[in-house]
Amino acid sequence: MATDRNRILVESIKRLLRRGATSHLSKIVNKTHAADLSLVFHSLSLAQQRKLFGLISNVEQKGILFSELDEDTFQDLTEDMRVEDIVRILESMPTDDVADIIGRLPEEKSQAILDKMKRAESQEVEDLLRYGDDTAGGIMVPDFIALREDVTAREAIESLQTEHSDVEMAFYLYVVDEYGKLVGVSSLRQLVVVSPATPLREFMITDVFSVQTDMDQEEVAKLVARYDILAVPVVDGSNRLMGIVTVDDVIDILRKEATEDILKMAGAGEEFVETKSIFKSTRIRLPWLFASCLGGIFAFFIIGEFESSLSKIAYLAAFIPVIMGMGGNIGTQSSTIVVRGLATGRINVRDIWTVVFKELSIGLILGFVYGLLIGSVAQVRYSMEALALSVALAVICSMSVAALVGSLVPMGFARINIDPAVATGPLVTTAIDIISVFFYFMIATTLLGL
Amino acid sequence: MATDRNRILVESIKRLLRRGATSHLSKIVNKTHAADLSLVFHSLSLAQQRKLFGLISNVEQKGILFSELDEDTFQDLTEDMRVEDIVRILESMPTDDVADIIGRLPEEKSQAILDKMKRAESQEVEDLLRYGDDTAGGIMVPDFIALREDVTAREAIESLQTEHSDVEMAFYLYVVDEYGKLVGVSSLRQLVVVSPATPLREFMITDVFSVQTDMDQEEVAKLVARYDILAVPVVDGSNRLMGIVTVDDVIDILRKEATEDILKMAGAGEEFVETKSIFKSTRIRLPWLFASCLGGIFAFFIIGEFESSLSKIAYLAAFIPVIMGMGGNIGTQSSTIVVRGLATGRINVRDIWTVVFKELSIGLILGFVYGLLIGSVAQVRYSMEALALSVALAVICSMSVAALVGSLVPMGFARINIDPAVATGPLVTTAIDIISVFFYFMIATTLLGL
After folding, report:
1. 8 Å CB contact between A414 and B2
2. Which residue among A175, B69, B187, B238 is buried most deeply as judged by most CB within 10 Å?
3. Which of B47-56, B180-189, B227-236, B314-323 has the lowest mean pLDDT?
4. Which residue of B has its CA nearest to A355?
5. Taking the domain A4-132, which CATH number applies?
6. Identical fold, B4-134 and B278-447
7. According to CATH, what is the number of the domain B4-134?
8. Helix spans in B306-351 (H)
């Protein structure tokens, strides 16, 4: 939820935009943190966004805004801007964010931008673009402090004032050998507490934790989170230091991955679509609904098979929603717990049978509880023991099968390295619907002798 | 998903525990990072956990493990431990983690522990316990560096070697006035680049970003994430510096909040329950299913009203699953997008009508697409125009109402400050089920003249 402060900001900016109070607006805009401005941006129309962006005078603030905007907004906003102006803003940004943006632009535009950039910087960006988007290489920054092991603490501090004065996140100093291979690390803090003449070799930590350039970004983020570190060095195949991944990027990755998991489980795409146009959103959501459509059509062919039973006892149909609903809901509980447990490391993929057995037990217990309850209501309403018993049994079957399927499918997918989140939502729900309806009619026609 | 390295670790530890290879085990355990050990712990039985814990010789490693364990595991593990041993471990831990653990223990046990702790430390813990669990005060650490503004850079560096040598996360130095009020901040890096005789006053940043002790922890975490800072100072009502919240805690909070949202939306409680016993899990999940049970019972009373229509055209029942399923699935998409959008700040709670209108439009478009498709299949199967038309119209109604309800309910709840996640899952699904079934039978009986 936005804080109250942000709500007030959004409203005053909207009001000032409507009134065309340009000088007042530019005062507010230039006093506001770019991260807050990007929240405001999401609530504005394209024309308003252009106007507001034009009022920002600080290039660095524009840069932060660039890296916070989603792809579509960025494209719309820069459509009419001159390449020179875009380049000036990009040059004020960290290299990994620039690579991110350039990587998403159409080939033609990205080439034009790279051509106009300073040689050294465009080289750095192109280096990063060689790595996969979602790997350690793709998210690392090449700005880090690397020194030789015979450098003294005093010399290291001096280098912070001179050659490394532009390194942004300077809390660790990395120590490399003559080939640029990572051999140690020291914190900035350690540097000031030893005596100035001590060489790095004597106080650096040699047991350095590092990751390879091709490691998946989610794994990198989890490692940084698990070990409570502020930055992790990224090395190539021969242990040469290539860059670092900092904790602020790790936070962004963890949040993005959580959002992706949530959306996938609901069958709503992978990326957040609310800011896209109605037609784009529709296109992304359409295919996920197709699974449940096919399942539903399959269900009506199954029920069609029991048409003669239904015409004898019409109120058999009345229990379809409750049986489907109970199965669907416990199945969602099970699959959600398993998917999130796997994502956070609370559930180990090796423990498949323990987890599935536990879920099945829970499904059986809850099935008995609700089967008894719903069966009793059925008995009160229709006074037919065989019908009430069929409904109760169907609820038990539906709920225990749902808990079984809801846990087994994501565990099984994780085991064979398919993302459990993407496979879970629509698949599990649809499978449970079909199974529930089928069991119900089989049980009812048998017990009622139809 | 656990990395391969961790899978191997879990398996070797389990194998060694079975074989009782104590000396080999204790070698492995004492070389492993506590964060990795805590992952292993989740896969072990209580007896195995006790045994493994006993093999750890390093008190600090035990401390990290303590803070990573969930409440139940912690209680089970320490049941038979002597208070002195628990205290020795707690004293090696950061104060906020100790307060977290003590706050969750039964009164009797927590008092026994506090009595045995060193006076200064138990005082710090009790200070933290005064603040709400989920507030900035409850998650801050009282270990920070606070200096007066006339202190020089050289003196500040000296204080790092003497009085502040035990501060763990020392990347910012806070500057306070004679009353302990926060007036500025300097980074450790800034400290080493200025000339040693410069007083803090001359290079500190006076525009310090701080939060109040009673701010909700989720808000604090979002601010740290948004502004890319490593720690935020926490002040009381009169701007006195009380502690800092560091970025590693922020990561934990953001992950925990994401997990809570996901679980609430699936109606599976708030806390992660997979590690709890079967009966505890059952008890937590039972009440959430009651909503869908009541909804289902309500639905069968509604369908009961249409009994005479059903006995005339039995296959009316065959379309119940597909109509419920399509509505339920698009409703889940809408509510998931809205809940996650609100949580991440991508959707502003003030834009309620824009968001709801957009979702309704998407619901209508997708309703037409799938209504046409499902209606056509119905026509092919039963060759009854009025039936096919009823089914098509019911799908359109069900899907657009579902998108409307799915977006309106969480937006409305957020507007009146009720957590949209907790209210969304079971409520939305159940409401959509009932509405869908009712519309379907109303449309069908009208068009078919039943």
Report:
1. no
2. A175
3. B47-56
4. B274
5. 1.25.60.10
6. no
7. 1.25.60.10
8. 307-312, 320-344
Eight-class DSSP state of B17: H
Query: Closest Cα partner for A58 from A22, A89, A87?
Result: A89
**A199-220 pLDDT per residue, tens:** 999 999 998 889 999 999 988 9
The dihedral through the CA atoms of A136, A140, A142, A143 has a sign that is negative
Residue A28: exposure state from Cβ atoms within 10 A (0-12, 13-18, ≥19): middle
Across the range A311-340, mean pLDDT stands at 88
Residue B119 to residues A123, B59, B100, B116, B141, Cα–Cα distance (Å) = 58, 20, 18, 9, 17
**Which letter, b or e, does each residue of B365-390 get, where b requires 16 or more Cβ atoms within 10 Å of its Cβ?**
bbbebbbebbbebbbebbeeeebbbb
Strand order across the beta sheet in which A231-235 lies: A211-212, A231-235, A241-246
Instruction: Say which residues have a Cβ less than 8 Å from residue A400's Cβ, sequence separation at least 6.
Output: A360, A363, A364, A367
CATH class, range A278-447 = mainly alpha
3-state secondary structure of B234: strand
Read off φ and ψ for residue B173, nearest 5 degrees.
-110, 125
Pure H helices in B79-118:
83-90, 95-104, 107-116
SS3 content of chain B, % helix, strand, coil (to 5): 70, 10, 25
Whether residue A37 lies within 8 A of chain B, CB to CB, comes out as no
Nearest residue to B35 via CA among A223, A257, A216: A223
Report the SS3 class of residue B187. strand
H-assigned helices in A243-351: 247-265, 278-305, 307-312, 320-344
What are the extents of the domains in chain B? 4-134, 146-262, 278-447
For B286, the closest chain A residue by CA position comes to A366
Decide if B311 touches A, using CB distance below 8 A. yes
As given in the structure block, the two tokens for residue B274 are 């997979």
CATH topology of domain A146-262: CBS-domain (3.10.580)
- A318: which DSSP letter? G
Residues of A in contact with B267 (CB under 8 A): 329, 332-333
The b-or-e profile of A305-326 (16+ CB within 10 A means b, else e) is ebeebbbebbbbbbbbbbbbbb
Strand B146-147 relative to strand B172-176, pairing: parallel
Closest-CA residue in chain A for B361?
A278
Establish if A393 touches chain B: CB-CB under 8 angstroms.
no
Provide CB contacts within 8 A for A407, sequence distance 6+. Answer: A334, A335, A337, A338, A355, A356, A359, A360
B301 interface with A at CB cutoff 8 Å:
yes
- Give this complex's ipTM: 0.77
What whole-number distance in Å separates Cα of residue A437 and Cα of residue A298? 11
- pLDDT tens, position by position, A8-27: 888 888 888 888 888 888 88
Determine the 3-state secondary structure of A211 from DSSP.
strand
Residue B216, strand partner residues: B135
Say which of B42, B225, B320 has its CB closest to residue A317: B320
Please report which residue ranges of B32-94 form alpha helices under DSSP H. 34-42, 46-55, 59-68, 71-78, 83-90
Structure tokens at A382: 């229709």
Place of tokens 């992706």: A260
pLDDT exceeds 90 at position B148: yes
**Exposure string for B184-198, b = 16+ CB within 10 A, e = fewer:** bbbbbbbbbbbeeee
